[in-house]
Amino acid sequence: MDFSGCLDDQSFGPTVRGCRDDFDFTIKFEKIFFALIPASIFVAVALARIVYLTRKPNIVTGGLLRVAKLSAICLFSVIQLALLVLSSTKSRRFAAFFIPADALTLASGLCMLPLSYLEHARAPRPSILFNAFLFVTILLDVSQVRTLWLASGNADEITFSRLFTCGLAFKAVVLVLESQSKARWIVCWDVKDHSPEETTGLYGLGAYFWLNRLFLTGYRKVLQISDLFPLDQSMASETLHTGLVHHIDVSCFRGKNHALARAVARALAFPLLLPVAPRIALGAFQFCQPFLIQTLLEHLQKPRDMASDNVGYGLIGATILIYVGIAVSGALYWYFQERVLYMARGLLAGAIYRKTTESRLAASGDSAALTLMSTDIERIIAGCLSLHEFWANAIEVALASWLLSRQIGPAFVAPLIIVGVCVVCSAIFSRFTGPRQKTWMEKIQKRVGLTSNVIGQMKHLKISGLAEAVENAIQSMRVDELNAGAHFRTIVVFAVVVGFLPFFLSPVIAFAFASQTLNVTVIFTSMSFLTLLAAPLSILFQMIPSLLAAFTCMNRIQAFLEEDAQVDYRRVLTTSPFEGVATGEKPNPEGAELPKVKISGGNFGWETGNLSLKNIDLDVPASQLTIVVGPVASGKSTLCKALLGEVPVAGGSVTMVANGFSRIGYCDQNPYLSNATIRENIVGFAPFFQARYDEVIEATMLEPDLALLPNGDSTNIGSNGITLSGGQKQRVSIARALYLNTDFYIFDDILSGLDADTEEQVFLRVFSPVGLIRQRNATALLCTHSVRHLPSADHIVALGPGGAIVEQGTFQELMANEKYVSTLGVENTQKSSSRGSSTPPVTKPSSEQILKPKPAKPVLPSDVEEKARMTGDWAVYRHYFARIGTWTKVVLIVFGALWGGMANFGTVWLSFWSADVASANPTHSNTFYNGLYALFQMITLFSLFETAWVCFTSMISISGAALHKEVLRTVINAPLKFFSTSDTGVVVNLFSQDMTLIDGQLPQALINLILSLFEVLGMAAVIATSSPWVAITYPVLMFVLFVLQKFYLRTSRQIRLLDLEAKSPFSHYIDTIKGIATFRALGWVREGIQQNYLLLDTSQRPAYLLAMIQRWLALTLQLVVAVIAVAVVAMATQLRSNTAFTGAGLIALMSFGETLAQIIRFYTLLETSIGAVSRLKAFGENVKPENKEGEDVIPPPEWPLKGAIEINGVSASYNDDDPEHLALDDLHLSIASGEKVAICGRSGSGKSSLLLLLLRLLDPLPPKQTQSPTDTAKETPEQSLTIDALPLTSLSRPHLRQSLLALPQDPLFLPPSTPLRTTGPLTSFLSPRLSLNFTPTQQYDQGGLLLSLRRRTASPSTPPEKWIKTGIELYNSAPRLSTVACDRWADWSVSDLPPSSPPSGVGQETGWTTLLVEKDKDGNGTGVWVYRVLESGEKVPLREICWVFGGSEEELGEWEVEVSAMAARPAREGGEGLEVAFVGLEVKWSD
Predict the structure, then answer these.
(1) What are the φ/ψ torsions at residue 1459 (nearest 5 degrees)?
(2) pTM score, two decimals?
(3) What mean pLDDT value characterizes the chain?
(4) Which of 336, 467, 869, 1207 might form a disulfide with 1229, Cβ 3.0–4.6 angstroms?
(5) Domains of the chain in sequence order
């Protein structure tokens, strides 16, 4: 058994020479690479897998399938044993190769037995290792079978070949059995809780068969989240965190660059390495293409009678193997790559949320960190998508350079010079990428943070008349953000051009140096290698900006994770609630009753060196009521936060006794409420107990309020509880605290929003000696300004203005001290208030009346909406293109067509060149052809640059600004009802996720679609030149692609819309940020994290499935390309096509598949990302503005002169669809000019509704029609709503609110860096007085105006937008966050102004202070900043401002004034003057 028919079989080869038509591998090569190496690797890996599976439990039955598998493996092993015996006894020349190969194959068969047994019983899916080995070795064995049969010459050799063929057949049987799904036999496996992906084997994963059911469902119906497959359990957020949290240790990050990126790589090391093997296989198949082209062209150059038919058939088979291999290996590669990226997505999002729950209170209030959860993570996913391409492309470039040198010799260095230049350019660009990306992200973060804050406070902004100013501020931030993004995208444009430089210029330079050796085969084989050289480089250079951007975003997340966490400085003593003794240390050896909280030497503040509370020594007695009183800004709220461990600057000791309870029932001064029902807000994450729930509802006097609501306690209260009054929000917050199972409650000024009667009843039922807290024997601390309840307190703490305890003790003790409490004028009414109340009892509705909601009609999508959701809507494209601009569209089409034509004409030109070179008498020199070739390539590059430049700089900025302005105006003009029924997270998502798509994915998809479409048309023409018969298949191909995209798009479009809509973690994250102190106090952190995991997994489902179906599309199109390639090769070999055009066609085919896939992929991406525009368009159409027809009257500047209010017969409801539940019912009210009127009533009686009615935030209902006595006519009662006889229903609502001065019930603060200013020429201010709306806060008790006057640099005829607008910029923030001390003005000339006497009507002591006088180089004044303290509501005459600046109104016409507001307080100890902070104050010009 020598197989001695060919002497060359003993050589390494790999191809055989002198036999088998020179179209085969040598036996030596096959035995080494097709048998020895695969079997050795499998045995080593199988043993490790067997050890791993022995530790797993049995989860699968199915004994019959297991027996069939083991039987087939046994038969295969018996055949391999026979082959080993035969090769051991009969082999001579190849014994050294046959015997080891057969022995290792037998060993692999023996390893299959235990591996198959364990894989079947202990793994849910068919073994990937087993199936991969079987598939690869079957392909390799097919080649060996062909060789053995062709080399067999005697009986022994034929017998060996027969046995080997039988072994191959049994291996195929094993493959079929091992690939069977085991889902039906898995024990305790609910299909609804698991994705079919978890039970799909290697082939189902590689071909994406597990998505078929999803495609069918999406084609037949409108998809919902519930229709999508559950997330793979190994990708679940909680699973990832549990298994990988030890890798992400933030304490090890500090001071280390890219520490988070390295930690994530370590945590996901195994999934990160899985794409390596298929990527290697993909590269190997791609590098087979040049050899296929070379062999095919050499075969075609031979005369037909000298060419072997077997070679032709072999080329067809090789084409099938190569192109199908590219499709399958690419599918597996991207499958594993997408999985690891979405695992990283879940890991990072979970880490961000967990950090939020640990952040310090001041830091967690920055809602701009929302950008990390959306934009930053999405850019990380996009940037790291091609991470493995870096090492793979580097290897491919080196290998392509070596192979190219074999074709054109030393000339291969020329393309490397181009590569070197590109590397240098990329290095230069990379220096700008990170900083520009960071700047862009920071601006996005500020805008999204402000938008989120504004949407949550829109009611207060409208009341204050600041809505228009905030709209302008946000839009200006958006324009600034787009400009910053354009700077970053400029780098991207140059990176794209640099990326394509090797692709287009390398052939020109290479052929210039190798012009003497060119022929048809060399030209097209070299082009194939140049394509393999330039294509990876093109991808590499284009990926660099995205990858650097991803690392920048990763560093931003790392910086967030590295922020100082909240440090709970409290010392907790744990005692048994039953035995009353310490389980840890013994806190009180003498047995005296312990205080619930003890503070010794406490110093607390929000900034280092600026303490709010000083030298606090306090005992909070257990099971008693402690009331804390004191003036405004004395530190009461800080004391509450200090007891929660939330104050960042803390000194001394805080000791608490936890009698088995770790949670604190806490109510903040500004109640935190989530966008949920009243019941859900009260119960929170606790289990529902009806008795306890009814108890707290009764104690907080919520029964009458629930009876008035349309759905009782199932009414959704909107973001920040916008549908509730201030008192109702506070009582819901109290009920939530009381529902908590704890023995310690802290209430921060929760009675301030209640009317006197409701306050009395709530205090009686909750805090009095017969109240709910006393019944539970719990401890309560109440901070309040309602000093009339002091007699009911067991312990009183009085704080002074400096933050120190003035006195503490019982009420009788403090009254005897004759200090602070004794001066409050409180009488001892404890007896009367503790035993009852004179307040009439409130009628308690029945349980059904409170709790039973009205059945809501389900909102079902219309047939038109369903069709648009499944098939798209061209009106959306028109809406988007209308905001791009005609010039931009023309440039895209013209230069896109130029790109497609010239990019492919170069290949056609090579065909003419090669044909001329091959002719006996060439008509032109190589220099002529190469020169024109270079011209065509440069034109192609220029068209690419022009298209990208227009798209990335002009189109994005124009469309982004226009779309943002429209949706922002829709939100600002939306009625109050919209904010009560819409989730803040959903609306913010329009400004975050959707704007990210509009700025990035949407324009990129559009430009890539245009370029790819024109390019593929040129490629199709080039491929058709190889054989006219190929062109005949194009109609069929177009039909297949049409059906494919129709089938595919119906599902992908819907899933993309679900991905945009499924942003539940976003809303949950917003809720957590807003109420983090309450979250931690109530002990909701763990439940919040679990809820975030659940919501995050839900949002991951559509995103991950969308990525998978896009990879399914790529696989399908690559298979289509494989069919075309087989057709080209078959027709070329059988019909003898033109050699040059066949080479051109095969060169085009190398990228045709990818370009074809890009067309549908980019079209799909365009269709799905246009969903963002669709959402914005639908949002603008569905949200009707609050201004109605006829409300266009603009009141005169001096209105209202008198302020007389007349309301007659007006009714109003918050729900127009439910007029039975009225907020105001037939209201009649007359207020004369100059009267001061107090509106009284219980909480929820309509006090706030009356204010909203006057400001037109609440619309009056149409008057009711009544039947006349004769039943023949109907009369409409007279209804009026006027101020100074001007009907409010006819006024423009924004102008109405700007003409009135109103203070919202809750304080209004905007995030830092909010440019909110009124600016313009001084003479353009029509109203003569400036007023300041300032409410004293805990930190600041003075309000002031900051005025900046600057000389214009242009003539009066210059448009205002051309003026230089510099000077003061108002930053709004919580006072403690942005303090500017007086030492900031140390180097400025400070003096009192003015030196002259004030004009008539202006007091001598005006209090104006100069902060800065600006002068030019000649000493002439160019600007001045002045400051003055104002009382709340004080107005400054315009003439006084003119006098302060030293001129009349006419004289100051060439100047520009800028008005800002600020808060102030006396300087800290050791300082002089005032400390000022820019805060959210309202500055208005009024008469």
Answers:
(1) -110, 130
(2) 0.71
(3) 77
(4) 1207
(5) 7-189 (no CATH), 212-565+879-1182 (1.20.1560.10), 1205-1213+1220-1262+1275-1299 (no CATH), 1318-1486 (no CATH)
